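Fill-in record for RNA polymerase sigma factor.
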Amino acid sequence: MKTDEQLMREYVKGSEVAFGQLYEKYSPMVYGFIRKRLRTSESEDFYQKVWRQLHEKRHLYQDQPFAPWFFVMMKHLLIDEYRSLGRLNKQEFQDELIEKIYHQDLKDDGLEELLETLPKESQDLVRKYYLEGFSYEELEMETGLSQANLRQRLSRTLRGLRNKLYE
């Protein structure tokens, strides 16, 4: 089985099969990510924008880890979407913080290092919620924690990560 990075290199060269495999793998995560951040009426158009953006920006791929690169691209697109919709809110702040974490990863593989400073449970929550697109409902079923508790833990974790980023 090929890695995401191998598939992306093939896609950059024009392989539709490679694109199909990336789409199949990442489509649920992209949709989950969008579903949490936009209204249902806005989600489908934005979902299409994400895949169109990947196609248009594929030449910028520099053989770095694919998932962080792809999600940074998607975050930039989402921030542009928020601005066009006139939404400057707490969600955008959180998105910008996560974007900074991803940029840290792209520069020096700092994401894993930064996440490893967290307790294992917090690492898992951040990965599942922000990177894999799990909903609070899905995390509640998996962890047994209430949604309110999950929100509180993620909020505290984000504050801790923000503090570490700005030390």
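KEY FINDING: Confidence is low (pLDDT under 50) at residues 104-109.
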